[in-house]
Write the structure tokens for this entry.
Amino acid sequence: MVGISTRTTVQPEDAQTCRPAYSGRGPRTVPAYPEPAQQVKSLVIAAGESFARPVQWTGGSRPGSGRGGFKQLYSRFVALRIRPAGREIRRATAGSELPVRRLPAEWPADQDEPVQFWLSNLPETILLPVLVRAAKLRRRIENDYRETKQARAWPISRAEPGQAGTTTSPSSRSPTPSAPCSD
């Protein structure tokens, strides 16, 4: 499960490659998709809001009227089957067919378009609520890591002439270079 940009390009699941006719000159033609790849955002919008299903992914931490006295976190999600179409994926794929993956996208009821997208290679038997919980859990882990990193005073790595790769904190450095030791 990985979060992706709205500009990531994909092919629909039912896209099929075709081999253009060989002209008899030059290298043989290779199979290719006849239609250009689409951005994930436009593909989900084309599928329509009617595919969006409400999913609750966790109990919240704010007091409310939900189960256990807390507000429930939920939104609407669309899950499509797609074929990722980036250059790196094409190079890494054996054969001409791109792999089929799942594209969960969050489309809140108060928004005109989807706001978050993920790419998943989890089995098709995984239900949408489980897929959404995995995506949201990944986001929480990333946020916790970022907060921990910001809260700790990580050492600053400064490469100085003749001391490449040393790690010092700014307060431990003397303002003037020290004199060399003499015996």
The first strand starts at residue 2 and ends at 4. DSSP finds three helices and nine strands in the chain. Strands lie at 2-4, 9-12, 38-39, 53-63, 70-84, 101-106, 116-119, 156-157, 167-168. The mean pLDDT is 78.
